[in-house]
Amino acid sequence: MQGFSMELVLCLLLFFITRTSALNTITPGQSIKDGETLVSAGGSFELGFFSPGNSKSRYLGIWYKKVSSGTVVWVANREASISDTSGVLSISDRGILAILNSTNSAVWSSNTSRNAKDPVAQLLESGNFVVKDRNDDDTENLLWQSFDYPCDTFLPGMKIGRNFVTGFDRYISSWRSTEDPAPGQYSIRIDPRGLPQFVLKKGPEILFRAGSWNGVYFTGKPVLKANPVYSYEFVLNKNEVYYKYEMQNSSTFSRYLLNPSGLAQRSIWNERKNDWEVFSIAQADQCSIYAFCGAYATCTTNKSPPCTCLEGFVRSSASSTDLNSVDWSDGCTRRTPLTCDDGDSFLKQTRLKIPDTSISWADMSINLKECENLCLKNCSCTAYANLDIREGGHGCLLWFGDLIDISDFTEGGQDIYIRLATSDLNHIQRKGKLKEKQKAGIIIISLIIATGMMIVAFLLYIRKKKLRKAGEQEKEELELPVFDFATIAKATNNFSRNNQLGQGGFGPVYKGTLIEGQEIAVKRLSKNSGQGPEEFKNEVTLIAKLQHRNLVKLFGCCIRRDERMLIYEYMPNKSLDYFIFDPTRSKYLDWHSRMHIVDGIARGLLYLHHDSRLRIIHRDLKASNILLDNSMNPKISDFGLARKFGSDQTEANTKRVVGTYGYMSPEYAFDGLFSMKSDVFSFGVLVLEIVAGKRNRGFSHPEHDHNLLGHAWRLWMEERPLELIDNALGNSYIVAEVLRCINVALLCVQRHPQDRPNMSMVLLMLSGETILPQPKQPGFFIERNLPLTYSKSVKHEPFSVYGSNITELEPQTFTQDIIIPGQSIKDGETLRSAGGSFELGFFSPGSSKNRFVGIWYKKISPGTVVWVANRETPISDRSGVLNITSQGILALLNSSNSLVWSSNTSKIAESPVAQLLESGNLVVKERNDDNLENVLWESFDYPCDNLLSGMKLGRNFVTGFERYISSWKSTEDPTPGQYSLRIDPRGYPQLVLKKGSEILFRAGSWNGLYFSGKSGLEQNPVYSYDFVLNNMEVYYKYEHRNSSFVSRYSLNPLGAIQRFMWNERKNDWEIFSTAQADQCAIYAFCGAYATCTTNKSPPCTCLEGFVPRSTNSGDLNSVDWSDGCIRRTPLVCEGKDGFLKHTGLKLPDTSHSWANKSISLQECEKICLRNCSCTAYANLDILKRTGCLIWFNDLTDMTEFTEVGQDLHIRLAASELDRIQSKRQSKEKLKAGIIAISIVIATGLTILVFVLYVWKKKFRKEDEKKEEMELPMIDFATIANATNNFSENNMLGRGGFGPVYKGILVEGQEIAIKRLSKNSGQGLEEFKNELTLIAKLQHRNLVKLFGCCIKGEERMLIYEYMPNKSLDYFIFDKTRSKVLDWHRRIRIVDGIARGLLYLHHDSRLRIIHRDLKTSNILLDNSMNPKISDFGLARKFCADQTEDKTKRVVGTYGYMSPEYAFGGRFSPKSDVFSFGVLVLEIVTGKRNRGFSGPDQDQSLLGHAWRLWMEERPLELIDNALGDSYNAAEVLRCINVALLCVQQHPEDRPNMSLVLLMLCGESTLPHPKQPGFFLERNLPPATDSASSKQELCSLGGSTITALEPR
């Protein structure tokens, strides 16, 4: 029996030993069930099933075991959770891991490309879960590993990167929330483009860039010294790129975490604190935001504004600093363009985070000098740098795009050589040398008096040049002339009230007269305007690119500091509403004038919607925005709210609905949807107002409550539409036109956008005679005002900004901002602040089903919760009701009518109301008392996890009441978490972040300007701060200087404090700063009497006069420095101590300190010396340099700043002080020998001034030429490079101008280059003509001119490249003509007609093309036609009908008779050419050279004969087969024959042509065409006209004829 017992014990012992040893592996046939775990051999990690937070879902994960038990680092089934505890993990014989659920279905599985002999799954001590062959421990032979599939945690030994061969990408991605491990929006990965770099992304958008690897570290961080904690490895070869790190000490635990809010943190486990400490955060401040400062600008932390243009560059935007303090994305542009042809050099910039390398090229084998030569040879190269900074630097890195995302480091960083024009470089170098000379001049002033005068003259010259260039740059940036402020002030009589024309949403409008007599209208941006910088920018960028006779002309703008002005052509007749709504003045608008105005507005809108290259939605079309010139021609104005659409975009959505009541379409007002049909609705309202002479909004009628639309509809349905006509018209109108106008207007104001016509159809209906469709009931039919969908929504008022109603509506919601006793807010109902910024109601966070009452942003970022009432008492269903009692108590009740949460008040209320203010503050107050000091209760007294503008943090010393913010427990549970941000009232109060009772971070005490924990900021344009400390209370708050900025502090569930700023352009929050940026932010990280320095390794240094307390090795102290330092020499105290001044510090913890505001610094020193416990003193207020702050204990939590910071006087023994001071003096003596070169510098300066003068003279003429062109100048080398040095293979053809080449710019843009041939019949005159004309034209059916190139005798025009060549390439080729089906041909005809109509009628310049032919009609990718070749075009005046020339130029077969024979040309000459074109498109045959059954007839004659014989369909191109619309073909032939009439007066104009082509009305019968019999022009009968020469220039026929 005893033997059996012994055997049993041995068996059990063996079983447990075996079980224990197998805890880190499973084999086929074994499994891990929910509740069982694997533990790594050393016990560091554990694998098993878990539920995150309050979630009930089960996941298989890996977490820390030895430290921080439960901190999950990896999840298998991230996107496929198990709903119960039935999960099982097993491994198959093939080495496949699988998670099975209760139905034995696979929820998740691994994969492998190799067969396993004896597979096992093992959890390694690194946290890596691997599948391998049992007896193969080589990590290179693993079958599968979890490290290949990271989640939100980046562990030591894990790789992030990409395999270039397989495309496999390893990256980390955030959890969706703290309770949902599914992949969130954020990821950290290697971007493989160009030179690979480490980036943080939100979806596809880069948020943060750590930069590329320079051999030592990622360039996004300043240089680190040898690091005792980590070792890094970065591998880049042709097969793969990856980055990983390892711990130097295996006993140290570290991890990177990407949390659900996108914050990337590196944490280290602190054994002493038994907690994770944040070692660093990627997004420390605004300079961490990707491309925060835009191109060619550097970002500097602790500078305000933070962005600065690189030397040689100037701001791209002319907006003020205030405007761009949040969004600097415009960046900077070159002061002087690059010349490329050996006229460029490089400027060395030091201590930088080098730019984005996604468009770069690298080679490790090239040295820096070769790198420079390579860059100089490539005109697209913008900068170069060393690829590897080790051993003095080697390798070559070239940039080819704009240089973006650059930061300026105060130390460390990297060198980069930036390409500049040599003239700019010389200018910068002179500037640098000048500073050195100024230093020398102070010492030896007697020797350089003459040189000093020269320096003054030089400085004046530089200043003048700088100001002039700044002005020129602004003109280029805005694509508009920039007027100086003095000119505008003088023109408006210093903005006299007598000159004021009116006031709008933008601000006041003044009349002005320039010195040359030009009358102007000046719109001056008001600082209090509801519109403002964004609308200003919008109006400038849009209208500067638009050119139409029915759009107001913008002459330029004026910008000076905060001043912004737009200078327009002056409209003496003011705006349409000035006339139309005034009983007296409306009589000046007879029916003809009104119809003319309607037509002009329609044409202007058609141009915006269809014909402009930019598709523009105006969004604020109304009578006051229609200006009238001398001749009562209408001009659409005010593009501040306009939006640009893409070519294929049909509609857009906005959360900020802006516009004017009465003109907004229903879908825009209610849903924020806007499109071209929104403008059509506004146009319809306008037409009805023009007909009726009454406003839509505010219209009243004794018989009904309808607005003007409803009234018009009622009269239409009752067949009394003529009663709508304005009485001022009397009987002087055309009934048919009035009825047509009303019908079209009602069609335009249909409720549904799809029922409204587009503007092309509107113009056709207004001008034609076709029967119009019957309109349906219009939108906003009954409403005089917009409807209130919620009965309690009684307070919703549009606010008037200087007379312009800007109505901000939230789609589908109209709510009030107050409730009174007897009213309540139920779940599903909301309160909204008066301006629509905040909303209060019930919500459920994340996937939680619990209901809370909260306040969230509404106007922007809807759903971002900033305050919660019942944080700790959720409601489990949707039965919640919030009401207010007659005593002014807010009460939240559940389904059983039980109290869940309530407010409190110590005052008795007479007539209480609860109101949600625009600040986001929910207040209870007396109804008629708006003084916030008297509120009965406010939510701002009970902050949650957000600190908003105007909210206080602090403590009342009398009542003990404390205001502080506390984190949520998780992203789905607003219960107060572990973390809080509060004012610590001990000693001198300071702002601290706590985890429970432990201080994690200390922002420091207030020094009169800022909290001392941050290095000093310059005056901040975004915020103002307020810190109050008196006997009653202490508090801190901040306010926005500009109410349009939206900002908040947030304390997230992981304890990170972040300041967010709303970026309107990105429509997202941007992290502006993070409190815990690095290890120096950890409270007392370096212990007592030691300072912490960021980017230094090790970061801690003892103060002078102190030595380390611990003798432990550096490795031990690399993580835990809490031992700090002690004095080298003890204090004596008996009058034998002194003070050593330290500068640039974060002051020590003030919880054991004493302060007095009235004591000077000298008195402070004496008080400290008399008290033996005093260890240091400092100024209390650095702004006033007054007050005394004294410390009585060890000095802890000090940081050394590289710039600014504060002075601290630290007590030392006198002997120690003497030793330190003698050491400092010896260092200063080393700086003595720098002053002997002043005369050499002065001489050098003189030479440089002379050289600069010569260069200035040399390049001034070239600059003047460029200014004349009004187009970008593209350098010759760029064009040569793009065309492969004008290779024959790149030649597209040859014309009268010269050869035409295809080219591809470095960025991939395809271009066509027309190169002026020296032997060309055309030449400089035609070149200038084409430049001056087409540069001022803007239409989708005209070819786009990108720029020009002038070098020596070379003249080139650079166009957009047309891949489908020209129309003749297709239409006259039997094979290729089949590509052009009838639908495409009719679209080409329509496009050419629209382009010609713009040239003849709608452009401010009236242009006669004079050489319209198939080879001059280019076709883009989509076969859209573009009229090209304006070399022979001529400009007409507004009232000019024809002109005459002795030099007839053009092409046979397309010229009109009066031009060919008489030299007379007019718009009707182009109409003739258009008619020929249409016939050629229909037939597929050339007019000239046509060979038909009747040999004496041209194509025109043949067409005429078939028409007369009623056989016109025989004209149709055989390539079309039967795939055509016969009615459309007949209409085209009819219109074409009308266009080619013998006499110009018989031809229609292009407006009528377009109407006839698109309409359905009966067309007039054509007469016999011109050039009916002629195949060639007949010989002149007059002997004097015998000179008729044809000269063919490379395929383009230029006919020079002497007119008779």
From TrEMBL:
GO cellular component, one term: membrane
Keyword Cell cycle: no
Signal peptide: 1-22
GO molecular function, one term: ATP binding
Catalyzed reaction equations: L-seryl-[protein] + ATP = O-phospho-L-seryl-[protein] + ADP + H(+); L-threonyl-[protein] + ATP = O-phospho-L-threonyl-[protein] + ADP + H(+)
One GO-annotated biological process of the protein: recognition of pollen
Subcellular compartments: Membrane
Record-listed E.C. numbers: 2.7.11.1
Gene3D superfamilies (UniProt xref): Bulb-type lectin domain, Hepatocyte Growth Factor, Phosphorylase Kinase, domain 1, Transferase(Phosphotransferase) domain 1
Superkingdom of the organism of origin: Eukaryota
UniProt-listed InterPro entries: Bulb-type_lectin_dom, Bulb-type_lectin_dom_sf, Kinase-like_dom_sf, Pan_app, Prot_kinase_dom, S-locus_recpt_kinase_C, S_locus_glycoprot_dom, Ser-Thr/Tyr_kinase_cat_dom
Major enzyme class: transferase
Domain Apple: 340-421, 1133-1213
TM region positions: 440-462, 1232-1255
Domain Bulb-type lectin: 23-144, 816-937
Residue ranges constituting the Protein kinase domain according to the UniProt record: 495-772, 1286-1563
Pfam families, sorted: B_lectin, DUF3403, PAN_2, PK_Tyr_Ser-Thr, S_locus_glycop
Sorted UniProt keywords: ATP-binding, Disulfide bond, Glycoprotein, Kinase, Membrane, Nucleotide-binding, Phosphoprotein, Receptor, Serine/threonine-protein kinase, Signal, Transferase, Transmembrane, Transmembrane helix
Record's bilayer topology term: Single-pass membrane protein
PANTHER family, per the entry: APPLE DOMAIN-CONTAINING PROTEIN, BULB-TYPE LECTIN DOMAIN-CONTAINING PROTEIN
Record protein name field: non-specific serine/threonine protein kinase
Organism: Herrania umbratica
